[in-house]
Amino acid sequence: MGAYRYDACDVDITCVYTDNGAEVGMDPMDFRLKNCLRVGDETPHGQTLTESVGLTDCLLTVRRQSDWDRKRREYGAQTGDIRRGIGVAALFHGTSLGAEGHDYAASTIAVEQNYSIDLTSG
Question: Cβ neighbours of residue 22 under 8 Å, at least 6 residues apart?
């Protein structure tokens, strides 16, 4: 529902655990980089991307600035009950109808009987 107050709302969700990426045998960063949306790809909502969403560049920057590769090697060699770790996540956030429909805006302009103009947009 975003950052808005609602007296009533209906939310329909399905909860799934997605913390089992190690089962594919890939570094989590490499897995995300392999599957980033690119120009020409179609989103799950049916939108064909005509410009980059920037995720590849973002993840490569995170990899470099976090010293990801060294930390993954170092942390993977740990033993004992208390260990350090490093993780990464990416989020796709739409607006408006999201998965239930296409995001779009529309406007209507009307000339009223008193010759005033009524413009609506949303």
Answer: 28
Query: Residue 105: CB partners within 8 Å, gap ≥ 6?
Result: 121, 122
The closest alpha carbon to 97, from 122, 60, 66, belongs to 122
pLDDT digits (tens, 9 = 90+) for 102-122: 666 778 888 989 988 888 876
Question: Tens of pLDDT along 67-87?
Answer: 999 999 999 999 999 999 998
Helices (H), 6-67: 28-34, 55-66
On whether the CB atoms of residues 118 and 107 are closer than 8 A, the answer is no
Q: Which amino acid is at 27?
A: D
CA angle centred on 14, ends 9 and 18, rounded to 5°: 130
Measure the CA–CA gap between 29 and 35, rounded to whole angstroms: 10
What is the spatial distance between Cα 97 and Cα 66, in angstroms, rounded to a whole number? 35
